[in-house]
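Late entry, evening session. Most of the bench is empty. Finally got around to the prediction I had been postponing all week. Sequence below, unchanged from the version circulated by S.P.
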Amino acid sequence: MRTRVVIVLSLFSGRRRAGDIQEFFGKEPAPDGAVWAFVALDVAVDPVAGDLLDVTVAGAWLARARGGLVGGLVGGPPCETWTRARGWDDGGPRPLRSLEHSWGLPGLRPRELEQVRAGNALLAVALLLFWAVVARGGAALLEHPAEPPEVHGPSIWRPDVVGRLRRLPVVQLLTVDQGPLGAASRKPTGLLAARLPGLAGRLAALAEPGWTSGGYVAHGRGEDGRFRTAALKEYPPRLCKGVAGELAQALRGRRCQGDVSDAEDGVGEAALGAVAAPPAGDAAMGDDFAGKPLPFGAIRWDRLAGRAPAGA
C-alpha cells in the first residue's frame, strides 16, 4: 500500500524551540495510511529555502498548493509595520501605516519604505498560499494582531485587506488573548481559521482561568534597551498546542491531500472566484506602491481566485 504524505506548511515559523507548533504537531497521529511532512518556512530555519521574499521559493510553494499537494497551512505574517506599539509616544518607532493608508503612509524614509514593502509582499504571499490551500479543500490558519480599538488604526483584518476572505462559509475570524495561554501580556490576536471549527473551544480549554498580566507593558523599550514587543514574537506553548491539535484533527478528518480537484464542502476554486471577483474600481493590494510594485506585481483579489503570480 502506498503511503500518502500530508504536507503542512508553517510560514514565518521562527527558530525551532521547545513547545513550538512543530513539536506538538509531530506528536499528533497522522491519518491512516499517511505520514506528516511538516515544513517550516523561515529565514531563521534556512536563509535560502525559507526566504518567502524570493519569487522562486514562494512561487514553487504556491504551485504545489494550487496543485493540491499541501493539506494544511499555519502562519503569522510579520506584524512589525502594523503593530499598535508604533502609536505610542514613548520613544519607540513611529507608525508606518494608517487605516487610510493600509499599504504604507506617504513620506516614509527609505529604510521604512523597504520595511513596508517587505511586509506587504510577505502578507501577499501568505494570502495567496492561504487561498490556494483552502481552494483545494485544506485547512489553514493565519495569525496577526487583533483589530485595534482605534477607528483609524491599520489592521489586516480591515475590509480592504482580507475582509472578503471572512465571507467564506468555511472561514471564521477569532479573537483570542495570548496572555491566558502563556504570553507575558494580554496580546489580543486575530486568527483567520479555515475548516478549523473546534479551535476556539480548544484554546479556551487551554487558557488559564483568572489570568492577569502582572502589569507587563507591551510597548516601548525595556531596561535592557530592547523593544518590549520582542518578548511577544514567539507563540506561547499552549497556543501552539491548541493550533497543532486542531489542525491535525481537521486533516485527519478530510480528504485534502493531492487527489482533490475541488473542496468537498463546495468552497473550492469556483466559489472562491465568485467571492473574489473585484467590484468596479476596486484597488489592487499594494499596486505600484510608491512607484515600486510588489515582487509579484499587483496582487489583486482576482489573482487570489487562483491565478499564479508572475514568475511563479
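Two things to note before I forget:
The first strand starts at residue 4 and ends at 11.
The longest helix spans residues 110-135.
Will write this up properly tomorrow.
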